[in-house]
Amino acid sequence: MVSNTAKVDPVWYPWLHHVTDEKPMTESFMSVGRVGTVVGEDSFGNRFYENNAYPVPNNRWVEFFVNLWKDYDSTQIESEWLPWLHHVSNDNPTTHSSVPDNSNGHTVEGPEDTKKQVEEVLRGGELSIEDQHAELDNREFEFETPTADHSNSRGDFITDPVLEAIESAEKQKITSPRSKTILVFDVDGTLTAAGQQITPEMREFLIETRKRVPLAVVGGSDFKKVTEQLAGHDKDLLLSLFDYVFAENGLLGFKGTEPYPVQSIQKAIGDDKLQELINFSLRYMSEIHLPVKRGNFVDFRNGMIKLSPIGRSCSQEERNQFVIFDRENGIRQKFAEELQKNFGKYGLQFAIGGQISVNVFPTGWDKTFCLQYIQDQYDTIHFFGDKTAPGGNDHEIFADERTVGHTVEGPEDTKQQVEDVLRGGEDL
Predict the structure, then answer these.
(1) Where are the compositionally biased (Polar residues) regions (predicted)?
(2) Listed residue (164, 299, 184, 175) closest to 232, CA to CA
(3) Catalytic positions, please?
(4) Torsion angle, alpha carbons of 115, 121, 124, 126, to 10
């Protein structure tokens, strides 16, 4: 029915493939009206119909198709669906060459007439068979479990490594053992390449490591970005990988699935001072000459403001170009020093964040903020980060007396240093 099912919840995959097999649709997923004579039944009690007749989908699946199609730019209708296809058009669909002979045509005279005719179809009983809903709700459906190589028994349909991680975590029922030690990770440059998504290998490494010791992650980015990088936009997967998840330096956080209170820089500093800071920053950045400038120079978040001279909407290639230019000219370092000189009096801190930004936050709202939630739970807190030098957004937590700091040079180095800690014989 659809040319690509990569974004669909995996529970639907077996059904989606079932409808394109060389056998008729079964009753399990469809309503039972207007389908012809039953000629067989499978081991699950699902009926088959003569002449490959297909049941008409009830409202539940119509809604599913609509939601499914929203995710795709390109769809195609398989020939098996044509018997129940209603073609609605203002171009006399009963004679239009693109309309299959065995579809049901409806000529309409505008949107209101379309709505009226659709309602008549629904009232006619073809798509609305409400008494099937209770039965569907109570029936148990068995789905084939994908294998570790992203395939089913036919060797197809699972291609997304994020889905593999979800299945791996569910199968292993991963929970961290009680431990005296916890490992805390930065995101960019530590678990992922800067601004990029985590690799399947690193995600699997975290899953295996968490069997031995609890894990936490603390990112300077907002929760949406942290989720995108570590779990492909899947919040549930992210929260299943770590015992604690902290975004925006810990100003937004979770223990398991339970959220901590969210902090607000707006409430802490006040709009007048924030506007003064933003106006100064925009003037300052307008006078910097760079190879390119793009958009989104000021990114206002719950607990911080990210100021980017190049603009956070730059491409990856432009980002890489700025990294080199900044390294040679100290663009962000000079910017942070000017901000400190003019606004340090307001109880604000300024740190180099990631590759293209300067982070602004109230004093004490650096990554050490997250330690308050874990310091009483563990004897030893190992922190792994890449921006650990003074002025970097990992420096404060790296140098804090409550942590054992580790400076890393990328995801592979992170794995190596974690393995060294685990091999060190420490009483975890």
Answers:
(1) 93-106
(2) 164
(3) 186, 188
(4) -140
At the fourth CATH level, the homologous superfamily of domain 163-263+365-423 is HAD superfamily/HAD-like (3.40.50.1000)
First and final C-alpha spacing in the chain:
52
Whole-number Cα distances in Å, 373 to 109, 251, 370, 378, 403: 63, 11, 6, 10, 13
**357 assigned binding-site residue:** yes
Domain extents in the chain: 10-84+129-138, 163-263+365-423, 265-362
Single out the residue of 412, 408, 410 nearest to residue 398, CA to CA: 408
**Cα–Cα distance list, 357 to 307, 308, 393 (Å):** 5, 4, 10
Q: What's the CA gap between 370 and 317, in Å, rounded?
A: 33
Q: What is the pLDDT of residues 328-382, one digit of tens each?
A: 999 999 999 999 999 999 999 998 888 899 999 999 899 999 999 999 999 999 9
Alpha-carbon span 408 to 384, nearest angstrom: 7
Phi/psi for 7 (5° steps) reads -95, 0
CB atoms under 10 Å from CB of 10, counted, come to 17
Q: What is the pTM of this model?
A: 0.54
Contact 21, 1 (CB under 8 A): no
Query: Is 160 flagged in the annotation as binding?
Result: no
For residue 207, count other CB atoms closer than 10 A to its CB: 17
Q: 10 Å Cβ neighbour count for 304?
A: 28
The CA-atom distances, in angstroms, between 240 and each of 148, 160, 206 are 18, 18, 11
SS3 306: strand
319 is in an annotated binding site: yes
- Cα distances from 407 to residues 113, 158, 253, 410, in angstroms, run 67, 37, 23, 9
b or e along 150-176 (b: 16 or more beta carbons within 10 Å of the residue's beta carbon)?
A: bebeeeebbebbbbbbbbbbeeeeeee
For the record, the structure tokens of 348 come out as: 């604000």
The DSSP H or E segment spanning 253 is: strand 252-255
Give the CATH number of domain 265-362.
3.30.1240.20
Q: Is 70 exceeded by the pLDDT of residue 181? A: yes
60 in a labelled binding site? no
What confidence tens digit (pLDDT) does each residue in 29-78 have? 443 343 455 555 544 455 554 554 444 444 444 444 444 444 444 444 44
